Amino acid sequence: MRKLIASLALGLTVLGFAGAAFAQEAAASAPAVAAAASEVAAAVAPAASAAADAASAVAAPAPVPNKGDTAWMMVSTLLVILMTVPGLALFYGGLVRSKNMLSVLMQVMVTFSMIVVLWVIYGYSLAFTEGNAFIGGFDRLFMKGIWDNAAGTFANAATFSKGVYIPEIVFAAFQATFAGITCALIVGAFAERARFSAVLLFMVLWFTFSYAPIAHMVWFWMGPDAYTGAEVVDAMNAKAGYIWQMGALDFAGGTVVHINAAVAGLVGAFMIGKRIGYGKEAMAPHSLTLTMVGSALLWVGWFGFNAGSALEANGFAALAFMNTFVATAAAVLAWSVGEALHKGKASMLGAASGAVAGLVAITPAAGNVGIGGALIIGVLAGFACLWGVTGLKKLLGADDTLDVFGVHGVGGILGALLTGVFNSPNLGGPSAVGDWVTVGMIAPDAYSIASQVLVQAKAVGITVVWSAIVSIISFKVVDLVIGLRVPEDEEREGLDITSHGETAYNK
C-alpha cells in the first residue's frame, strides 16, 4: 500500500508541470460596408434582406450523414465488440488456471453487457453532452433526443471535418463499446480471487465516476462547425472537456481506456491482495492456444478501435489502420527479441503479449503520427512492456494476475507521451489542428515537441490520479458492502464451480 501511495504522489507531481496551451489563433477582419441613405434604398432593403434569407435557407439544407462514413462506423463498432467478446475474454481466459477459466469469461462478458446498458441509461449523456469541463449533463438520459421529432429524423453527430456528420446513434453505439472494453480490461488484474458480485458493483461505481468523466475531459468538444469565426473560439473551447482544452492528443484512448483501466486494476491488485500460493505454487496459463486466438482477435478488432476513431472513412482512418498494423508487428518482434536475450528463448506467450503491447501503445497515436513514428513506438512498446511485466512488476510487489498495468499502463503512458513527439510534422507526423475556424494545421516551424509532450504528461498525470482516487474509494465501498474476495476454500477449489456452478472442461 505504501508503494501505491508513493505512485500517487509521483502522479501528483506531474500535475504541477506547466502545460503549454494549445494555440488557436485566427485573424478576423470585417470589411467596411458603404451605407446608402436614399429613401429608395430604405424601402428596398427589407425585401432584399428577406430574399437573401430565403436564398440562404435554400443554399444551406440540413446536413445529411455520409452513407460510407456511417457504414464504416457500424463496421468499426462490430470490430470492437469482436475484440472484447470473444477476443479479450479468450486472451484472459487462456492465461488463468483451468479452474478459473469460466469465471474470467463471465466477468468479461457480463461486465461488458452491463456497461453497455448503463451507457444507454446515463453514461453517454455524462460523457458526451455539454455540462462543465469535467462531466457532461443529462440531455441524453435514456438516449433522449437521439430521434429528432421536430425534424422527423435522427440527430447528427459531428466528425472532425466541417460539414461532415454521422448519425448520433451510431456514434453512441461506437463509444459504448469503448466504455465496455475499458471496464472489462480491469478484471485481469485481480482474476482468480474476486467475488463476482463485487466485481460488478465496483464496475458500476468506477464507470460512473472515472470512465465517464475522463472520457468527457479528453474527447468532448463542440465540433468543427461550431467554430464559425475567431470571435467564438474562446467560448467554444470553454465548453469542451478539461483535457481537450489543454490540447492533449488522444486519438483512440491511451488515457481514457488504457491508463484509466490499468490504474484501476493496479489499485485492485493491491487492495484485494495476492492469490493464495502466489510466488510459491505454479500458476502457469492453462491454454496458450486460447490466448493466441484471443490476441489475434484483439489485433483484428483493434482496427475498428483505432481506425474507427477517425469517425470518417478518410485518410486519417487509413493512417490509423496502417499504424495499427505496423506498430503491432514491430512490438511482437521487439518483445520476442527481448525475451530471447533475457531468457534465451522467445515464447508464444511473449509474442501474444507483444502484440497487445503494440496495440496499446499505438492507440493514442494511431491517427496522430506517421508510419515511421508508429514503427518506433511499436519497437519501444515491446521492450518497455516486457520490462513492465518483469522488472516493474517485482518493484511494485502487486499480484497483477494478467499484467494489466505492465502492458496497458506502461504501454498507454509510453504511447501517450510519444504521441507528442511523433505528431510533429518535422518527424513525419500529420501535426495537429491549430485553428478550428479554418481547420488549419500547426506549421512545422511552429510545432514544439517539448510543449506538446508536457501537455501529454499532464493529461497522463490527471488520468492516473483521478482513476486511482476513484478506484480506492470504490473498492473500499464494495469491500464494506459485499466484501471483495472469495473465502480461501472457494479460491482453492476454483471460481468456476464455487461462483458459477460449472466447469470449463469435463474431466
TrEMBL record:
Name the record gives this protein: Ammonium transporter
Gene: amt
Pfam families registered for this protein in UniProt: Ammonium_transp
Transmembrane region(s): 71-92, 104-122, 169-191, 198-222, 242-272, 284-304, 316-337, 349-367, 373-392, 404-422, 459-482
Any coiled-coil regions, as ranges: none
Compartment(s): Cell membrane; Membrane
Family named by the database record: Belongs to the ammonia transporter channel (TC 1.A.11.2) family.
Signal peptide extent: 1-23
